[in-house]
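Lecture 7, part B: from sequences to assemblies.

Below are the input chains for today's worked example.
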Amino acid sequence: MSQSVMPPDETQATSNPAPAFLPRARMQELLQHLEDAGFACIGPTVREGAIAYQRLRSASELPAGMSDEQTPGSYRIRVTRSARQFAWANGPQALKPLLFAPRETLWRATRQSDGTLCFASAMTAQMPLAVIGVRACDLAALALQDRHFLLGAHPDPCYAARRKDLFVVAVHCSHPASTCFCSSTGDGPRAAGGYDIALAELDEGYVATAGSPRGEAILAALRPAPANAEQLAAVEVQYEQAIAAQSRTLPGRDLRAALFANLEHARWQDVSQRCLSCGNCTSVCPTCFCHSEMDVPQLDGGSSEHLREWDSCFTRGHSYIHGLTIRPDTRTRYRQWLTHKLGSWHEQYGRSGCVGCGRCISWCPVGIDITEEAGAICSSQK
Amino acid sequence: MTPAKLPLDAQIVGRIEESPTIFTLRLRLRDDRAREAYRFAPGQFNMVYLYGVGEIPISIVSDPRDPALLDHTIRAVGRVTQGLARLREGDHIGLRGPFGHGWPLQRAEGHDILVVTGGLGCAPVVAVINFILMRRERFGRLTIIQGVKHAEELIWRERYAYWNTLPDTHVLLAADHGGPLWPWHVGLVTEVFDQVQIIPARTIAMMCGPEGMMHAGIKNLTGRGITEDRIYLSMERSMHCAVGHCGHCQYGANFVCRDGPVFAYPRIKELFSSKGF
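Predicted structure of the full complex, as structure tokens:
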């Protein structure tokens, strides 16, 4: 992997400059510097009753005074009196749709008058993105998506083009939701790497740390004051509190052996009675990578677009081969999802496919809790 | 866009009707450089694209010595294959590949080869049978076992009969339901296993077909002393991308398109008897 493909990997080579302090009012300047450097800023905003990442024109669009309440099967945003802009855990999506598009054209086939077919890539030039407010769980998921889409024998060109210049401004999570368990998976609540700039939000502003030469340059241009000892201490206290606030846990970091030893556990049947097989969990999961490919021919017959679209192992079509559906029922689909997410990922990518973001718990219409199901299956026999 | 992701134009230069629903397309890449650079191994597959409809993975059955002409035997069963069935010589399709890992032919040299297949003529093993017959001196005894449900489902009947006349080559066929002109075994394919002479330390088994059949075959062979690492299976799963990205073909930690489709049995043993993976 060349450095140009994954700039945040330069993290390791950077001398870690002293943390700086940015009063909250200067967030707009940070955005402006990023825009001036050629990035389109994307950040959290309130949209349709949820925190959603979209084009950020001004720091005033950040969800100041908003928090989220998440429980199994429920996500609500609440108005608070706080001036904080990141006093919430996460919304339904973050980085995944920005890099691995929910639906995009891969190539276009054109039929010539003599019947021959011409194939052309449908990739378009991408404006480099700077994403503000990336959580530790989503950075861990980004590293996993990188391994899946970039680090094999056939790097995905569409993902690579968007990933190449991605600028990440992480914000350490200070307000985990009840559904969060990143501390249990070891992925948060503090972003440990893979960012250009990391911010810890305090009541009066941000303690900012650069994680790459690019991040260092952007921060230096802001000429910030160094963070003082009191601010640094407050960041540590907040970090400890964010860990303590999490009550959910997975029964271990590597559940591969436990899951595959329990493939006939009665709990698979039990969860299949509750699961709607709707695929919400896979849509909100920041690491799920399944997608289907399909053709959409143009009405004039002269060309055809070959698309890919997010798919889910909870659909019937996912495992269909010529007249046979490998996973015809919800029991085998849920089992496929969980044994892959928490099991097979270890062999595929060296770690679990779960980063503890808790989205699959909140956005499940019937409130199925992955930590509870994994606990039931892995900690008991049958 | 990498070549693995973007199809190439290929022309149908031959079409053979194997049965009312099975046909073979002989394809030739149009681009000279791509055609000259193209190499494959028996057991590998191509993604075959029907214009405006979509792609499907199809095993290459022709001989790797002539990679300019690529034969694909296809059963018309789904949206893409039924469309492909209507194409004629001179028509154009898209092709990208080859993908995956083929049969362990280097390891198999000097060994007795036991080919076990079921269903409606299994293309991946036909490639290996042809490969061996064209290089007969490099391999020991070749035994071909094929099972079908109904006698009339067997394609290439003459070919099987011909293979059975070749030196040191034995064909054993079984149909669950025979017929008046079925000279072979009537019953389960596993029942003919006992007729096969096996020297375990000299044998490599290659299987393809319904997993239940392969499962029974593995049980029989291991029971007769063939070690599991001498058994190879060609697996079939849904595939959209062919490069290990789309997730459809996952089999435990394996991506069948990338890590298979041919696997040494120990690699997939853990899940092989579990339905739903």
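Note for the exam: The longest strand of chain B covers residues 8-17. Keep this in mind when comparing with the next example.
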